[in-house]
């Protein structure tokens, strides 16, 4: 039986359906385990953090991006390089605060939520919370403390998905890469 | 009677740790099952009907394994009586863990999901099974599929 696909080629990429379905299975299992949307959000964020503190090394090794000089540059690298590399999408960077310490990432599409619908009894679930943790963990490893949250979410009825990122402070000492 | 339970050859110290680990491994297997069902639907959308059970297993070993793990199963053996052994000499989820016997006791955690994946895929192809995994030297491992007569 002949296969028309070219799935075997790029070893750095994974099948997007596998990725989406696996994430879905993960969230579903967490919902069963915790029975409370807030707690699931927290767990996803925590898992994301643990991924982020390690992912940053992979990112730096594969992207050959140098040190960012300011938060604006950081935002661009996150949107144009990191998101592209790991999720195959390029969110746009907008809504800068006057002080330049806060911005939004607008995601037109989000591979994590393909085929996903939130049931009515999970209205407080922030399905893609993992991403917040990843960004927070990764940036912590490059000496930036940030606050990351979803301001809008297509799964909850908004027209776009918007991630709000706020710079808190520069981390002076080198913290060991701890697990939460 | 439970089917699809993940059975592994490992030693656990302490009953509590054993139970906890067993529960986690079991959950991972169920997650894999659901994903396997979904994936096989997508992968076989335009595929003609499979001739027989062996045809199904060959699909799992070649197309399915390639889509998921970027490589095929290295060796498929069967007794032609419903037992298949799928050998992967360089299992992608173990290569980062160890090249030998170090961390062997942790291998089940990395195999459970895939056992479920195979069981779920087969399930949606109309084949009921029990899937277990065995590792002795990483990153090689064997998945054993026991077809259940419906």
Automatic annotation (TrEMBL), chain A:
Gene3D superfamilies per the UniProt record, alphabetical: Trafficking protein particle complex subunit 3
SUPFAM superfamilies the UniProt entry points to: Ligand-binding domain in the NO signalling and Golgi transport
Any GO CC annotation of this UniProt entry: endoplasmic reticulum
Record's keyword annotation contains Protein biosynthesis: no
A single BP term in Gene Ontology: Golgi vesicle transport
Subcellular location: Endoplasmic reticulum; Golgi apparatus, cis-Golgi network
Keyword terms, alphabetized: Endoplasmic reticulum, ER-Golgi transport, Golgi apparatus, Lipoprotein, Palmitate, Transport
A Pfam family annotated for this UniProt entry: TRAPP
InterPro entries noted in UniProt: Bet3, NO_sig/Golgi_transp_ligand-bd, TRAPP_component
Coiled coil: none
Primary location: endoplasmic reticulum
Record's keyword annotation contains Lipoprotein: yes
Family from the record: Belongs to the TRAPP small subunits family. BET3 subfamily.
Subunit structure of this chain's protein: Homodimer.
Function comment: May play a role in vesicular transport from endoplasmic reticulum to Golgi.
Name of the featured protein: Trafficking protein particle complex subunit
Organism for this UniProt entry: Carassius auratus
Lineage, opening ranks: Eukaryota, Metazoa, Chordata, Craniata, Vertebrata
TrEMBL record, chain B:
GO CC annotations, alphabetized: cis-Golgi network; endoplasmic reticulum; trans-Golgi network; TRAPP complex
InterPro entries documented for this protein: NO_sig/Golgi_transp_ligand-bd, TRAPP_component, TRAPPC6/Trs33
Keywords assigned: Endoplasmic reticulum, Golgi apparatus, Neurogenesis
Gene3D superfamilies documented for this protein: Trafficking protein particle complex subunit 3
Location(s) in or outside the cell: Endoplasmic reticulum; Golgi apparatus, cis-Golgi network
GO biological process terms held by the UniProt record: endoplasmic reticulum to Golgi vesicle-mediated transport; nervous system development
Location, primary (coarse class): endoplasmic reticulum
Domain of life of the source: Eukaryota
Membrane spanning residue stretches: none
Pfam (any one): TRAPP
Family stated for the protein in its record: Belongs to the TRAPP small subunits family. BET3 subfamily.
PANTHER family according to UniProt: TRAFFICKING PROTEIN PARTICLE COMPLEX SUBUNIT 6B
Record function comment: Component of a transport protein particle (TRAPP) complex that may function in specific stages of inter-organelle traffic. Specifically involved in the early development of neural circuitry, likely by controlling the frequency and amplitude of intracellular calcium transients implicated in the regulation of neuron differentiation and survival.
This protein's name: Trafficking protein particle complex subunit 6B
